[in-house]
Design brief:
- The structure holds 2 protein chains of 2 kinds.
- Chain A is of the alpha+beta class.
- Chain A is built from 5 helices and 10 strands.
- In chain A, the strands form 2 sheets. A 5-stranded mixed β-sheet of chain A has the order 3-2-1-5-8.
- In chain B, about 65% of the residues lie in helices and about 0% in strands.
- Chain B has 21 helices and no strands.
- Chain B is globular, with a radius of gyration of 25 Å.
- The chains are: A alpha+beta, B mainly alpha.
- At the A-B interface, α2, α3, β7, β8 and β9 of A face α8, α13, α14, α15 and α16 of B.
């Protein structure tokens, strides 16, 4: 008895499923997913997610079609034990598979590297960032401590505020550090995440593009009230931002006077000490 | 034998080197150490630090607990005999009697069953913690536990599952079946084998004892410098994990030497069952990674007990150092969990597909490749930490390239099903579920290895769902497949198939229903290890919790099946119910004490299933003939 054309059937089913599923995922579903479009970094992450889903969907479709097909067609039908066909390998199949999986993996690496290097992607880049925006960003320091974040604005007299407002359409340079344990500053809708390490300066860039509220959460377990370390930040127009920060400067002037001078890190430099 | 057994009084049997003596001596040791630690208090340490003394007392207590426990189990007997010039037999406590399960036994089959029950118990305790976590997360604000207790439960769940329940998943099946598969009469180092098991149990007990000392708020990762401000309960974590590391190292060494040196004549590397390749590679990872963990924990212990400052930023140390050292262990560790799953899947598939394993050398290359690359990916846990930011493209490369050897495992498995005759037995169902679950786990991992998308989901429930798909969906499903496949050989009793199938379908559906939803929760901005979350996430969390409770119930179904099949019904299993061609199934059930009367001679690999394919053209050699 001739074997039916299994491979051709699987390929047809797979192409059909992929042609239907991939556009739905890539065009309709994924672009609406979090973190949204409130900042360039967030939109970039949505783009990355969409691209990865675009690659993963046909692969998943292949898996589904293949398994559905072989599990139905190649099952044992009768009560009598039957044996399969003793195929122990196929050089063409293995070469094709290796080449294809390597190409997909390397392609994703190149894609991710290019995306990372062109923008920094909103992640913490350490004290000496590789990807910087052109122009003069607004410097904001994020200080993590158990269990809240505070924000210092060196260009506004080093005032330390309890909440965060950022001007829209302006590059912001976040310097994230900690006074005690490791925290992680996560501004979800802005697509920013950077660990706050004690005694270290961790820089992340963000370019808010839409006004509105965003959620701030701590994304690294930092002790008892880690779950309560959240706040709502706000992206506002430039004039409202200036009004807010000047108000804060005036209101917090007595506090600012007794604060330690602005610094990128608040622990003594281990290199600079004896012992 | 039985007359002699019944003739001995119960109390007589309880005295001697066994786990009871071990516990008694262990507790005595603990209080001795506790007392000693408080004596040191008056002299020096209290002078330097106000909190140091109790850490020292607790650490000394745990140290002497382990010494007492191990001595009580009889591990000192052999070294002591050698010290006075006597040579004991390398066999101990073998032969009949239920008592051999409660002490040092050098029979690898006993150790295998000890491991199975031991890690099984911790698996169920760990699952109970998971139920508590999901119960707390039914509401967006804390309701059941205080913040400290909640974090302790989260840490206990993670540490117990990672450390005791799954790190030594080789313990049950590799200890029992690797010697049978390679035609050996025992493991290379039978005492080391027993020691690795009992150290693991001591570690598990010490971890559970953390609740008496205030628990620990750090999660299973125990990051510095948070661990410096943790309760004394963190010392339990230190000792637990160091013991787990020691146990893993010993298990690995033993396994490597056994597989390398004790194969039967004719069992060449190209004929070695794929499960043994998995056990070997995992063991190499154990031996290379676990000592790093022990060293790291020693440094943490010194930071806490002796006021050093390896990881204290305010004193010139670096928390980055801890993160690096921990994940240098931690990332190979997650492949220590994944590889046994790969190996079980590839070992079981041919039996139920009735076909040879497709591409055996590729499968071996896949396992070895994953093992090798797993040492070069650890900084992907630190993509947003600010350390070595310029090296991130390299870690992106290594992490995504590890999907190529993993893909080989998929290829071997999928091609083995091609033109097969699949029998849907319970082990096969679990193995097939592995493909689905591990694909979801692997694909979601790509989102974490790509730095831009990782920035969004890093540290969120997405990560949590990802590694539960790989560890539960991958390893634990394969583990249950192995349980249903091999336990009939180990106990000589058959599982109830209907209950087993209900268990499988409940577990598969509930598992996907739980963790599939948690991807969405993570994407929508819920960080890990919180008991407070945004109220718009409440419906999804309720969904996940209810599904998790069903998942927990499926575990009870399994327990019910174990109780029914192994204790009540006791239907004897055939010697080879699956018609496997592997060596372990050719032995009678129960397996004789020293396995083989005569050392077998191997002349083929164990995957000789199927009928040869028809030649493509007349006169041509069959296409799939072994080359």
């Amino acid at each position: 008895m001739r074997e039916p054309p299994h491979l051709r059937r699987i390929l047809i089913l797979w192409v059909a499923l992929s042609v239907v599923a991939t556009p739905i995922v890539v065009l309709l579903w994924d672009p609406g997913l979090p973190p949204g479009k409130q900042a360039g970094e967030a939109s970039g992450q949505v783009t990355d997610n969409t691209a990865l889903m675009g690659v993963a969907t046909p692969i998943f479709a292949l898996l589904v079609v293949y398994f559905a097909y072989v599990l139905i067609v190649f099952r044992q039908r009768g009560p009598e034990p039957e044996e399969g066909v003793a195929i122990r390998g196929d050089r063409r199949v293995q070469t094709t598979w290796l080449v294809l999986t390597s190409m997909i993996a390397l392609g994703l690496v190149i894609f991710g590297t290019v995306r990372l290097l062109e923008s920094g992607a909103g992640g913490g880049q350490g004290p000496d960032p590789l990807s910087k925006p052109s122009g003069q960003p607004l410097e904001v320091q994020v200080i993590g401590q158990q269990w809240n974040f505070t924000y210092r604005f060196p260009s506004f007299g080093g005032v330390e505020t309890l909440h965060l407002q950022l001007p829209v359409d302006q590059d912001v340079e976040l310097h994230v550090t900690s006074l005690d344990v490791i925290h992680s500053f996560w501004a979800h809708q802005l697509g920013v995440k950077a660990d706050a390490n004690p005694g270290e300066d961790n820089v992340a860039y963000v370019h808010p593009t839409e006004t509105g509220d965003f959620d701030i959460r701590c994304a690294e377990l930092c002790g008892l009230w880690h779950g309560h370390m959240f706040d709502t930040g706000r992206v506002v127009s430039n004039s409202r931002f200036l009004a807010w920060i000047r108000g804060q400067q005036a209101e917090l002037a007595p506090v600012t006077r007794v604060l330690p001078p602005y610094s990128r890190r608040y622990f003594p430099d281990p290199q600079g000490r004896a012992g | 034998m039985s007359a002699e057994r019944t003739g001995r009084l119960l109390w007589r049997r309880l005295i001697g080197f066994n786990v009871l003596t071990g516990i008694v001596l262990g507790i005595a040791g603990f209080y001795l150490g506790w007392w000693l630690g408080h004596q040191i208090d008056a002299t020096s340490l209290a002078f330097f630090a106000d909190t140091g003394q109790d850490d020292v007392a607790l650490m000394l207590g745990y140290l002497l607990f382990v010494v007492g426990f191990v001595v009580g189990l009889g591990f000192a007997k052999y070294p002591a005999a050698r010290l006075v010039g006597r040579e004991l037999s390398h066999r101990e406590n073998e032969g009949g009697g239920i008592g051999r399960y409660f002490g040092l036994c050098t029979d690898h089959k006993v150790v295998g069953i000890q491991y199975l029950i031991g890690i099984g118990v911790f698996l169920f305790i760990g699952a109970t913690y998971a139920m508590m976590i999901r119960a707390e997360l039914l509401r967006p604000s804390p309701q059941l536990f205080g913040a400290g207790n909640y974090l302790t439960i989260v840490g206990l769940h993670g540490a117990m599952m990672m450390g005791v329940a799954t790190s030594s998943v080789l313990g049950p099946f590799a200890n029992y079946f690797v010697p049978l598969m390679i035609g050996a009469k025992r493991m290379a180092f039978p005492r080391i084998e027993a020691l690795s098991f009992w150290l693991l149990m001591a570690g598990g007990a010490i971890l559970a004892s953390t609740v008496f000392f205030g628990g620990f708020p750090t999660g299973w990762t125990g990051y510095a410098p948070l661990n410096a401000e943790a309760n004394y309960g963190f010392d339990s974590y230190i000792f637990f994990f160091a013991l787990v590391g020691a146990s893993m190292t010993l298990l690995g060494l033993n396994m490597i030497v056994t597989i390398a040196a004790m194969r039967a004549p004719g069992l060449t590397w190209r004929r070695l069952p794929i499960f043994c390749w998995g056990a070997l590679t995992t063991s190499i990872l154990n031996v290379l990674a676990a000592p790093v963990l022990i060293a790291t924990l020693l440094m943490v212990g010194l930071d806490r007990g002796a006021q050093t400052s390896f990881f204290e930023a305010s004193e010139g140390g670096s928390p980055y150092l801890f993160e690096n050292l921990f994940w240098f262990f931690g990332h190979p560790e997650v492949y220590i969990l994944a590889l046994p799953g790969f190996a079980i899947v590839l070992e079981l598939l041919p039996v139920f597909a009735r076909k040879p394993l497709w591409g055996y050398p590729l499968g071996v290359a896949g396992i070895l490749g994953v093992g090798l690359i797993s040492f070069f990916v650890w900084q992907h846990h630190l993509f947003v930490s600010g350390i070595n930011a310029d090296l991130r493209p390299f870690y992106m490369l290594s992490t995504e390239v590890i999907s190529v050897p993993t893909g080989l495992i998929f290829l071997c498995g999928m091609a083995t099903l091609w033109r097969a005759r699949i029998r849907y037995t319970v082990p096969m169902l679990f193995v097939l579920a592995w493909f689905f679950n591990f694909f979801v786990g692997g694909a979601s991992g790509i989102f974490l290895s790509d730095v831009p998308s990782d920035v969004n989901v890093h540290g969120s429930f997405w990560v949590m769902a990802h590694f539960h798909y790989t560890i539960v969906g991958g390893l634990v499903f394969a583990f249950f497949g192995a349980v249903y496949y091999w336990v009939p050989k180990m106990t000589g009793l058959r599982f109830n198939e209907t209950l087993a199938k209900i268990h499988f379908w409940t577990m598969f559906i509930a598992f996907n229903s739980t963790f599939g939803v948690l991807f969405a929760v993570g994407l929508m901005g819920m960080p890990r290890r919180v008991s407070t979350y945004a109220s718009n996430l409440e419906p999804l969390n309720i969904w996940a919790s209810v599904s998790a409770f069903v998942l927990g119930a499926s575990m009870l179904l399994f327990l019910a099946n174990v109780a029914y099949s192994m204790i009540i019904a006791r239907k004897p299993a055939e010697a080879n119910p699956w018609r496997s061609k592997s060596l372990e199934w050719q032995l009678p059930t129960p397996v004789p004490l020293h396995n083989f009367d005569r050392t077998p001679v191997i002349d083929a690999d164990p995957y000789d299933y199927g009928i040869p394919p028809a030649p493509r053209r007349p006169g041509e050699a069959p296409a799939g003939a072994p080359g």
